[in-house]
Design goal:
The protein is α+β, with helices and mostly antiparallel strands and 180 residues long. It is built from six helices and four strands. The protein has helices at 2-18, 41-54, 63-69, 75-86, 92-95, 174-179; strands at 109-112, 125-134, 140-151, 154-161. The N and C termini lie far apart (80 Å). Mean pLDDT is 82; it is low at 20-28.
Length: 180
């Protein structure tokens, strides 16, 4: 009786072992050297823009503010900003104006598009539209695009594309502005 049960269970066990375990659609794309913020790409981007509007700055953020931005920025963007900050001969584009939006004065509020509208949930990078607003005597509204990248299990801001209807004086994106 025991042999008969073993004879029935053995093929079933072999059949089950032949089935492969499901693989995630994306693989971990490396580690992250800095701290990160919990949440999906839209949540992290919204938290970043909330910090930006709470502590607006013109030009490159100083080391103290850059440290506050660190959990929201990709390793690559953070390193670019550090290198640009270390340069003694910063261009005028890096010393004045808001580097993180199309408008030199910067936004007073921001609303990041919901990432659930992105069809590929397994993506490693996702561009998200950001609706920005500058309150004042004459309120201005525009959209930019924030590129979110997955680093390990974290989402982080990797670039900002200036897509407002007016041209940004330094170029088409934050990375281009920094590299000039």
């Amino acid at each position: 009786m025991k042999n008969r049960a073993f004879a029935v269970l053995l093929p079933a066990a072999l059949l089950l072992s032949a089935c492969s375990t499901p693989e995630p659609a994306y693989q971990d794309n490396g580690s992250r050297t800095g701290p990160c913020t919990e949440g999906g790409p839209d949540v992290v981007a919204q938290k970043f823009y909330a910090l930006r509007t709470e502590h607006p700055t013109q030009g490159l953020p100083d080391a103290q503010l850059l440290a506050q931005y660190r959990p929201y920025l990709s390793d690559a963007l953070y390193q670019k900003l550090l290198r640009a900050n270390a340069q003694n001969d910063k261009s005028a584009d890096l010393r004045q104006g808001d580097l993180f939006s199309s408008l030199a004065a910067g936004p007073t509020s921001a609303s990041v598009a919901d990432a659930s509208t992105i069809p590929n949930h397994d993506a490693r990078n996702i561009p998200l539209r950001v609706s920005l607003r500058r309150d004042g005597d004459k309120a201005l509204e525009w959209q930019d695009e924030v590129l979110m990248v997955r680093e390990g299990s974290c989402w982080a801001v990797d670039d900002v594309r200036y897509v407002a209807s007016w041209p940004h004086p330094a170029g088409g994106s934050l990375s281009q502005t920094i590299e000039k």
